[in-house]
């Protein structure tokens, strides 16, 4: 089969591993930088041109689209969908997953556990926002942040107020979430492919750091999920409409709480922690669904 990986950087670990896994199964693997694609839209004849050539005969697409280029990246994925090409992550699900607020609303409606979250339109009454989230300490997150950037833990009420006022002054949209003390700076990343948890790791923030992102110097170890955690991860990916997802959750006294659902989860951390060939499982998912 001819499989396209939409990625701006062919030397990234995840992209390299997907190419390797695809070639191992004798597929023709092509890395396409979505930011360099031109889309032709006409009646019943959608087309994509890449570096001056028409892309044709493609059986499947694996989008690896960075948050900064979501708008154009999803347009390219949508164009492939119009050309009846199977995509490992659907354009609509990609758009939804990049909107933190919308994601939380979808997860909440599905009855999944979440940290209590408050969002407002730059409300001046910051004190009541903090109280609604359960009072300090609270976690304040930029809606646009990724990889742990733009996430602040406010230990006490005064610092929470001044952080919120600063963000409001910058007209930066934030959500305020309750701080789950018992998680002790750790979270779980469950990797879901086609409705199955194919690997899970527990990520621990470095000393004195409550953000557990590996980009922030956290460490990761393989973990066996409880049935409740596994079911929550599978359901979260399903309601978000994602065939491939990294579901981040916290272990709390009231059960697993979903933090976010990532539509372009990195492979390096999870493959290193679990020793599993996750890239190969993503290729198999495409094989099962693509027309060839």
TrEMBL record:
What cofactors does the UniProt entry give for this protein? Mg(2+); Mn(2+)
Q: Give the stretches traversing the membrane.
A: none
- What molecular functions are annotated in GO for this chain? ATP binding; metal ion binding; ribosomal S6-glutamic acid ligase activity
Q: Which PROSITE patterns match?
A: ATP_GRASP
Please tell me one Gene Ontology term that the record gives under cellular component. Answer: cytoplasm
Q: Which residues form the signal peptide?
A: none
Per the record, a Pfam family? Rimk_N
- Give the top-rank taxon of the lineage listed in the UniProt record for this protein: Bacteria
Per UniProt, residues of the ATP-grasp domain are 104-287
Write the record's keywords in alphabetical order, separated by commas: ATP-binding, Ligase, Magnesium, Manganese, Metal-binding, Nucleotide-binding, Protein biosynthesis
Of which family is this protein a member? In the C-terminal section; belongs to the RimK family.
Name the chain's protein.
Probable alpha-L-glutamate ligase
Annotated source species: Pricia antarctica
């Amino acid at each position: 089969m001819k499989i396209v990986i939409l990625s701006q950087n062919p030397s990234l670990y995840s992209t390299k591993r997907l190419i390797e896994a695809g070639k191992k199964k004798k597929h023709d693997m092509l890395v396409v930088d979505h930011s360099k694609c031109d889309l032709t839209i006409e009646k019943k004849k959608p087309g994509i041109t890449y570096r001056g050539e028409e892309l044709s005969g493609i059986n499947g697409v694996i989008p690896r689209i960075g948050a900064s280029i979501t708008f154009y990246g999803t347009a390219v994925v949508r164009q492939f969908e119009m050309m009846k090409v199977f995509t490992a992550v659907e354009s609509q699900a990609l758009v939804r997953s990049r909107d933190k607020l919308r994601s939380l609303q979808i997860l909440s409606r599905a009855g999944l556990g979440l940290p209590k979250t408050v969002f407002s339109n730059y409300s001046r009454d910051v004190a009541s926002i903090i109280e609604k989230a359960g009072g300090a300490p609270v976690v304040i997150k930029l809606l646009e942040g990724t990889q742990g950037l733009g996430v602040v833990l406010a230990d006490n009420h005064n610092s929470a107020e001044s952080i919120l006022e600063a963000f409001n002054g910058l007209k930066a949209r934030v959500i305020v979430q309750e701080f789950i003390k018992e998680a002790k700076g750790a979270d779980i990343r469950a990797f879901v492919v086609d409705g199955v948890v194919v690997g899970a790791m527990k990520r621990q923030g470095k000393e004195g750091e409550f953000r557990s992102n590996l980009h922030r110097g956290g460490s990761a170890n393989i973990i066996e999920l409880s049935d409740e955690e596994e079911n929550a991860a599978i359901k979260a990916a399903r309601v978000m409409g994602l065939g491939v997802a990294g579901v981040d959750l916290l272990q709390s006294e009231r059960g697993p709480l979903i933090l976010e659902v990532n539509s372009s989860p990195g492979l390096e951390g999870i493959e290193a922690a679990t020793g599993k060939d996750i890239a190969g499982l993503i290729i198999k998912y495409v094989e099962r669904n693509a027309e060839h």
